[in-house]
Every structure is written in structure tokens, then in C-alpha cells.
Specification:
The chain is an alpha+beta fold. The protein has two domains: 3-307, Bira Bifunctional Protein, Domain 2 (BirA Bifunctional Protein, domain 2, 2-Layer Sandwich), CATH 3.30.930; 324-413, Rossmann fold, CATH 3.40.50. The chain contains eleven helices and 21 strands. It has a five-stranded mixed β-barrel. α8 links the parallel β17 and β18.
Length: 414
Amino acid sequence: MKLSKLFSKTTKNISKKAESKNHELLVRAGYVDQLMAGVYTYLPLGKKVLEKIEDIIREEMIEIGGQEILMPALTPYENWQKTGRWDTMDDLYRFTSYYSKNKVALGGTHEEVVTPLAKKYILSYKDLPKYVFQIQTKFRDEKRPKSGILRGREFRMKDLYSFHTDEQDLNKYYDKVIKAYEKIFKRFGLGDKTYLTFASGGTFSKFSHEFQTESPVGEDTIFVCRRCKMGINKEIILTQKECPKCGKTDLEETRAIEVANIFKLKDKFTKPFKAIYLDKKGKENTVLMGCYGIGPSRIMGTIVEVLSDEKGIVWPKEVAPYQIHLINLKESEEAERIYNKLQAAGFDILWDDRDESAGIKFQDADLLGIPLRVVITEKSLKSGGYELKVRNRTKIEILNEKNLIKKVKDYYAK
């Protein structure tokens, strides 16, 4: 992609309403555009990042047996009434159809849809366990949307739902999801700062688990055990004052962003929908259920909050919109040639072909945050090739075409 042809542009101007790093940098770099409070357009660069985040999540959900579906965002009143959440879920968007006069809600969560759906296909113990997931746009009527794409009224969410014969099977799969989530956050470059955190189970169970990424802008206060990478949410610290793993009490208080949560729902939703199965003896039993959420758009914002530096965004290589940011200073013919060569070698490249100063090009490259920068100058060509630099490192190498391609391949192979 030639930068001169890109739909969006970088900007120095930023809304006075920008109260977080991710809001400021993503808007300035042209990844997103704010339409209104809590609602954003994902521009071409932002859409590529979001899709890569979702692809990683999708891969890991399939790896643990998840089958992907897509449920409606428009959901019927009757289902919410059956679980009692039509009147109790304070951030549910509710309205009445102008034509049919039916009450409907925009999905902020999908237990009321997936449970009766699963009931249609789960009849016997032979049909269990089952695991289905979706990645979808969700809607919640947040009283005060804030912190850029970390807390919006419209956002992306991955829901995984599991269905089981008994608690032993539910617990076994629950632990498998925890391991999958840990792998996901490692791939996002957030593994060192993300803690499996004990939290309130609400109306579902005594405890649930969250994945909390340490950050000063986080809305939650957690107490962490640095040795075990475990955390406890402040809301339950009175009932759980020691590390759940090692038992130590020297927990450290910190702020964090909740990027995922998992619940053992048990029969919370299967019971009101009468989702039952027949066991080996022909006896009716209630299906047990687990749910596992993770927010792709919130993760995108968290990556920017946690990994960016004073110059701009620093994308992990697995989610960056492009693999190489190519910059040429006047040497346009050679830039075109190496651009085509790198593309032929299988790399995804953003080429800054604009007629701008070196200063502007380098500033924009830092702001955009693509992992590898290749620079072509008269000096570099006389020195034997092209400058190669990793976004958040100072070292610059001069490499010929063959070694450049090898170096880039090696970087992305790790």
C-alpha cells in the first residue's frame, strides 16, 4: 500500500475530549475516527489491526474445540424476560419496533440467544460437551463511555459458550480456556503484564475469573502476586487476602484494565430455558454451561495504552497493520523496485511515497508503529543497501537486498 493512496491521514490535531493515550494515538495516527461518545469508525489501518487480533483469538478458540457461529444482534424481549434480565440489566439497549410493536434489545451479551439455540441440538449425553463461539459487535448503554475504545457503547466481543453434562467436565474445560487465554495474551505482547484475577461471580457463582492487564489508566484495582502471576480484584479482597496459588500475603496493589472474563454459569441460564439432556439411564438432567469473553477492540486499545512510547504506537508483530514501513528520501525508482521485490517475497508493506520531508516521514513512522522500518537514502545505497530498524530499538543495520529479505523473514519467523 502506498501511503499517498491511503484513505486516512495522520494529524496533529486531537479532540480536547481525548482523555486516554489510546484515544489520542489511534485518532492521530488515523486508525480510528470518533463518531460520537463511545462509538468509533475503524479506518483501513485500524480495521487491519482489529482483524488480526480477532484472527488470533479465532485460531485459539478453534484449537480448543470451539465452532464459530454468528448470532443476531437484535434479540427478542421474551428471552430476556425468561431470565429476568430485561428489567435488571441496566446497560441493555431496549426499544419497541415502530411497525410490529414488539419489544426488542440490542445484544450486549448472548446467553439469552445461545442457550435456547443449544437446546435445539442437545438432546442426549451423547451430544455433550459442545463449544460454540462468535466474534460480534455488541451494544451497551454505558452511562459514561470513556478511555477511547477501552469502554464504548459499541464494541467488538468474542463470546465462547460451553455446554456440559456435569461440573467435572465444566471445570476441565474451564481450565483449558484459561491456558488458551494465557497463550492469546502472550501473542498480543501483553503476557508479562496480564494477570489471571479472582473476582466476584455475581449471581453466577462465588468466584469468577478476569484477565487484567496492568496499566495506570485501568478502571480496576487489583492485588497481584508477582511470583505466581495471579491477582485478586479489590471487590473481593476482604474474602481472599492471600495468593490463591502460593498462599503468600505480600500482594502488591496496582491498577489494571479488564481484557477478558470467564464464568462457570452452571444452570443459571439452562434452567429457565429448560435445556435438558437424557443421561445413560434415560433420566432428564439440566445442561451445565460456561461462558468465556474477550474483547478484541478493548485489547487493541490496551496494546496502545501499555506498549506505546513517547513517539507513538508500538504494535506487536502479530497484530501490526503492515510488516514493513518503507521510507524513501528522493530515491523513488529504487524504492519502487525494492517495494515490488519485498511484496514478491510475501511481505505486507506500507510505502511512504509522499513528497514530504524526512522529519515528517520519520515522525509518522513512529506514530504509526509498524514493527520494521526500511529506509532508502543516497547515503544508504552508497553504503551497500538499505537501512533496517526495529520500531522500538535504536540499532540501525545497512543490508543488501538478499540479507534484508532474510533478516525480515527471520524476524517474523520467531
